[in-house]
Amino acid sequence: MNTVKAYVIDDEPEIVELLCDVAEIAGLVVEGFVNAEVFFETVPNIEDSSILLLDLHMPEMDGIQVMRRLANMAKSPSLILISGHDRGVLHAAEKLGRAHNLNIVASLGKPVNIELLQQLLEQQCLSDKDYLDLDAVSSEDEIIADELYKAIGNNQLLLHYQPQIDLLSDKIIAVEALVRWQHPKLGLVFPDRFIPIAEQYGWMGKLTHWVIEETVQQEQYWQAQGFSIPVSVNISADNITSLTLPEQLAELLLDNRLDPTRITLEVTESMLMGELVTSLDILTRLRLKGIGLSIDDFGTGYSSLSQLHRVPFTELKIDRSFILNLIDDPEARAIVKTCIILGHELNMKVVAEGVETERHLEILKEFGCDRAQGYFFSRPVAADEIINLLKK
After folding, report:
1. How wide is the angle at C-alpha 151 spanned by C-alphas 146 and 155, nearest 5°?
2. pLDDT digits (tens, 9 = 90+) for 202-252
3. For domain 5-130, which architecture applies?
4. In this structure, are residues 374 and 345 in contact, taking their beta carbons and an 8 Å threshold?
């Protein structure tokens, strides 16, 4: 497995040296630059598994210009944005980066919180060991797609589950099902690598159907073992425009004698911008059948409050990008607090994603958040491990 490569671009040499030291301690191979143009000349081919620590305010080529150039390259690194400007500038840069389809890991103000930065880099290092390069299978997308299509039908996929913790009792109250690909040659491949292929070829409906069926079977097994724990499943934009989904899911639950309230379907906020009337039809019928609905990644999409009011959600999940900046960013803290109040006013349970530290947990409890999930509690684990966690 290749070591993760990190780059630092900052016009202050002492800052470059400091950030390079932190990256090395985190286990990355790092290279620093005080000039962005020199970076592009020196590193013409950037690995998409690499990470770039980018200062926004630089005299010759600023961070916004750097992001523009990265967006036009075949592969681009993940980005940690750094700036001494106010948080509004950082947030605007984050939104711009995501609009360019760049992976923005975090944005940090100066002086940089070294402990947080090291944690972010270590997590990136772990992610690189998890996310395997599908290009190793073949350079042809069609062959990779063919392998994925066969994998969906040949039981090469599996589910891991991440616990959700009730913040009043500190006990596991639910789990989220997350799909993985057990590749015969590459081992465990994570969804960031194959979900885009499934979306490109129109297989998300087939993939989601498999995930739901597998989740229902697993829920049935857990109940046979004496454990009844609700499960959340992510569904795609294709699913919320499929008029037959409510009946199919209700029939599946009936056949397996499972209470519909034990299943929650997660819909990302951006999905609501599509065929709203059809989506509202489907989502409302799902609720009528007792199935829970969660609005996922809340705060990162473009849905209006009127849309949020129309759809009968039972749960609101605050995006991890806000939780990550909860400690040092007053604006992120205000957004999280407001989301919790909004969710409760609309009679929804509120879940915080991406909880990494004890301090994150303390703030969320102070704000009255209902549930949380993240590496502070547990990484996504195999189904049998969930039983061990429940016993503990």
Report:
1. 165
2. 788 888 889 999 999 999 999 988 988 999 999 887 777 778 888 989 999
3. 3-Layer(aba) Sandwich (3.40)
4. no
Q: By C-alpha distance, which of 180, 124, 130 is closest to 155?
A: 180
pLDDT in tens, 112-122: 888 878 878 88
Q: What is the pLDDT of residues 292-309, one digit of tens each?
A: 999 987 876 555 566 677
Strand partners, 315: 294, 349
Q: What is the pLDDT of residues 152-195, one digit of tens each?
A: 877 789 999 999 999 999 999 999 999 998 887 778 888 888 88
- Over the Cα atoms of the chain, what is R_g? 22
CB contact set of 134 (below 8 Å; sequence gap of 6+):
144, 186, 189, 193, 194, 197
pLDDT band of residue 341 (cuts 50, 70, 90) is: very high
With b for 16 or more beta-carbon neighbours within 10 A and e for fewer, the 52-82 pattern comes to bbbbbebeebbbbebbeebeeeeebbbbbbb
Burial, 131: exposed, middle or buried (Cβ in 10 Å; 0-12, 13-18, 19+)?
middle
Domain with CATH 3.40.50.2300 in the chain: 5-130
For residue 1, pLDDT beyond 80? no
Residue in this structure with the two tokens 């806000």, named with its chain if needed? 322
pLDDT at 149: 80
What is 211-248 written as a DSSP string? HHHHHHHHHHHHHHTT----EEEE--TTGGG-TTHHHH
Rounded to whole angstroms, how far apart are CA atoms 153 and 257?
Answer: 25
Q: Is 126 exposed, middle or buried (0-12, 13-18, 19+ CB in 10 A)?
A: middle
Q: Which CATH architecture has domain 137-391?
A: Alpha-Beta Barrel (3.20)
- 111, exposed or middle or buried, with CB in 10 Å at 0-12, 13-18, 19+? exposed
Cα separation of 364 and 370, whole Å? Answer: 8
278 backbone φψ class: left, alpha, beta (φ>0; ψ -120 to 50): alpha
> Could you give the 3-state DSSP secondary structure of residue 157?
strand
